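Long-time lurker. I teach an intro course on protein structure, and each term I like to show students one example going from raw sequence to a predicted 3D structure in token notation. This year I'd like something fresh instead of my usual example. Would anyone be willing to generate the tokens for the chain below so I can use it in lecture? Attribution to the forum is fine with me.
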Amino acid sequence: MVLHLLAEHIRTIRQHGEQAFPYEGCGILIGEIQAGDKLIHELWSVTNTWDQAENPLADGESSNRRFLIDPADFKRANDHAVRKGLGILGTYHSHPNHPAVPSEFDRQHAFPWGFSCVIVSVQNGKAEEVVSWILDEQDQPQREPMQVLEQVQLPSIPAFAG
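-- Reply from a regular --
Happy to contribute to a lecture. Here you go:
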């Protein structure tokens, strides 16, 4: 399975990471699975709510090392996606002054079920590498193949005869 994003999506993820620096920025990937690949149609940018009062995952770290997407934001993104015949296929977030590699916290809190986790490394305020990760059957992060498209080029699906 390959994650297909538009170049515009990559630019937006990079910009979001730079704007959020020195904190983690985050968002939701909305799209569809077609011909065995994930096709991202939209990004749903959200506020990192890690430092808000009722954080059930609080561990002493701040939003410059952690991100949290409010369940209400997930619901709004899901409702929006469903109205368009799409779904939530993953999340993205930035790693300020760290590589685009999942932390142990990322791994422990990642969605299983094939959700993508796109990470942009932001070094000293400048976005660098963007990488997608997915958990394998042992809940270990594996690099997910990613294809960046200049424009919408959806794979064709053979029509059923008959």
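Some talking points for your students: Residues 69 and 136 are 23 Å apart (CA to CA). The radius of gyration is 16 Å.
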